[in-house]
Design a protein that fits this description.
With 106 residues, this protein is mostly helical. The protein contains four helices and no strands.
Length: 106
């Protein structure tokens, strides 16, 4: 449980209260910033898949709207925008996470 908590804190830039975990978080975040450790590869890939899915949904919605003059095309466009925002937020949090964790737990 503590390993998962430590990885999540570094990945998303959270502060931990336990002094032992705080020191370990600072160390792991420093290693991640130097490039010694690669964190969140699966989550990073999954976020890009969500962004690609969003682009496909927006394209399908536009096709439905333009080709068939159907107002039903707005639904995939709105869902695609929502997925794009979710994917971008996760990617942004992961990119800034180690630096923030390093500062907060130092």
């Amino acid at each position: 449980m503590q390993r998962w908590q430590l990885r999540q804190a570094v990945l998303f830039g959270h502060m931990l209260n336990d002094p032992a975990l705080k020191e370990a978080t600072h160390d792991l975040a420093g290693r991640a910033l130097r490039g010694d450790v690669k964190l969140g590869r699966g989550l990073h890939l999954l976020s890009w898949v969500v962004v690609a899915e969003a682009a496909a949904m927006i394209a399908i919605g536009n096709f439905l709207f333009i080709r068939f003059s159907s107002p039903a095309g707005i639904i995939p466009v709105l869902l695609g925008i929502w997925f794009a925002v979710k994917g971008a937020v996760v990617l942004r949090a992961m990119r800034r996470g180690p630096g923030r964790a390093y500062r907060l737990n130092g």
